[in-house]
Amino acid sequence: MNALPLILTVFVACAVEAVEALTIVMATGLTREWRSTFQGMGAALVVLAVVTAVIGPALTLLPLSALRLVVGALLAIFGLQWLRKAVLRATGYKALHDEASAYLREVAAAKAAPVQARRGVTDWYSFTLAFKGVLLEGLEVVFIVLTFGANQHNIGAAVIGAVAAIVVVSIAGFAVKAPLSKVPENWLKFAVGVMLTSFGTFWGAEGAGVDWPGNDAALLVLVPVVALVSAGYVFWLRSRKATVSAPDKESEVVSS
Amino acid sequence: MNRIKAFGAFWYDFVVGDDWQIAALVVAGLALTAILVHTAGVNAWWLLPLFVFAALGWSLHRATRSR
Questions:
Q1: Is the pLDDT of residue A101 over 50?
Q2: CA atoms within 13 A on the CB side of A16
Q3: Is B48 in contact with A247 (Cβ distance < 8 A)?
Q4: A residues 188-247 near B, CB within 8 Å?
Q5: What is the rounded (10 degree) CA torsion for A93, A99, A101, A103?
Q6: Within a domain: residue B51?
Q7: Is residue B22 part of a domain?
């Protein structure tokens, strides 16, 4: 398979995660202090680099069919969870993830917390907040990079897509000095959910022993079919919602 | 012990997420595909997509039916 679809898929998936991490970093850095925030961010990036360096080469040593079976299952499950959230948000059954309000919540919490120096870090609150935010969002990036990269035996291309996404989002965020609230996050998540589900289904079935008609070209059919079926669920839920009383949009806890 | 539980809970939430039945249906789809391919000799490439679409529809139905 050409490396370009791999790079583009990883780029979009990682851009979504980078936007969420950026919101936390900007809120912490602008409200409190940058030095401790960057230290926290740097520490998280070191942990993520170690995880990638340890697990990445180990994955490529696995037999391809076993790798595709396990990684395909994980990607399909992961992708379906993204799609589920995106469809529920698109139909109003779940509140939209709002980077602007997430930013305001982080700012309010950051202003209220006391400044405390620990282990050579001037502001421990800024450090831990940036560390946790970047680590948690970064783990999803690492998962996507390793699963896509290992399956294609091209972790380098996946890393290029991820690094490009992080650089572009960081430059955009620091240029506007605010969270990237104009990014159509739910539709990006929908698109990423479609890609993860399609690739997961394709690789998982291959790992189980099937031969796809047309080999890799089957993905050119599978991706639009997954998108169409998911869009069909959006229309189904919207029409069903219109026929019953208005549901409570906030009744399901919103996570990333 | 609490740390081990928290570690396990984190990874469960990370991989399985909000609805474990999605994961169960995907695994069932893969298992059935493997059985059809290796024991019955059927190239069941169509089976996993059906399970995937059913898993999403079932999960969405359960998440929204009482609202």
A1: yes
A2: 24
A3: no
A4: 197, 201, 204-205, 207-213, 218, 222, 225-226, 229-230, 233, 237, 240-241, 244, 247
A5: 150
A6: yes
A7: yes
Is there a domain that residue B9 lies in? no
- Give the structural domain span for B55: 16-64
> Which of chain A's residues have a Cβ under 8 Å away from the Cβ of B22?
77, 80-81, 84
- Alpha-carbon distance of A132 to A205, in angstroms, equals 35
Question: Does B14 contact A at CB distance below 8 Å?
Answer: yes
**Which range, of A14-28, A53-67, A112-126, A213-227, averages the lowest pLDDT?**
A112-126
Taking Cα atoms as reference points, which of A76, A75, A74, A97 lies closest to residue A85? A97
pTM higher than 0.80 for the full model?
Answer: no
Helix (H) or strand (E) holding A63: none
DSSP result, A116-139: --BTTBS-HHHHHHHHHHHHHHHH
Backbone angles phi, psi at B14, to 5 degrees: -65, -45
Helix axes A64-90, A218-243, angle to 10 degrees: 30
Mean pLDDT over A98-109 rounds to 69
Q: Compute the distance between CA of residue A182 and CA of residue A180 in angstroms, rounded to an integer.
A: 6
Is residue B37 a part of any domain in this protein?
Answer: yes
What's the number of domains chain B is made of?
1
Spell out which residues of chain A touch residue B58, defining contact as CB-CB under 8 Å: none
pLDDT at A253 over 60: no
- Work out whether the CA dihedral B55, B61, B66, B67 comes out positive or negative: positive
